[in-house]
Design brief:
elongated; three-stranded antiparallel sheet; four-stranded mixed sheet
Length: about 220
Amino acid sequence: MKCPKKRVNLGHNLNRMECISKKIKQQIIENGQCKIYFASDFDFPGNEEAIKKALIRLEQSGFLLRLSHGMYLYPKKNEQIGVLYPSMDEIAQAISLRDKSQIMPTGALAMNLLGFSTQVPMNAVYITTGTPREIQIGKRKIALKKATPKNFQYKSRLMAMIVFALREIGKENIDDGILRKVEEHLSIKKEINLYREDLSLAPVWIKKILVPIINKLL
């Protein structure tokens, strides 16, 4: 005896998809332009696949731009420049927020973000408390690397970035220009107590550079 075939209500499924797609589009419009979205940003329990398909359809219609697999941008456009894309750091921060992980820029990226170097690295390298991996963003990459817990013990993100940047520059290459920029950053005195606590985490040679600057700001 043959079992009867289960009927699939295509009309109902299509209406549900249209409804979810409209709600997602409205939510994105209300949040404003130049924001990054993942499927996990939308709360329609039991409809994970429908959310993913809705985002793909919104990208295919030109409403969203696809930055990477599963990552979309609601773009803002400028008449002269065209689409205003978020920075690699903004994209990395959005990924970190989604993953509920911490990230910290290192090496050449930390140097660039602090203004120690004008060279923009092709690959944005971060250490992370989450899963290490690489994310392709157009022709560039965001590299998330696993790090020892000590690297995330800094209470001031700025202090951690300065330490990573100075380590990348190297002891023999620290000049007066770099020292002036360090002092300029650390002059945000609301975090002065955090800077002092974080000194114990810095390498000895970096600590010798930072102590006089911090004492001068007290």
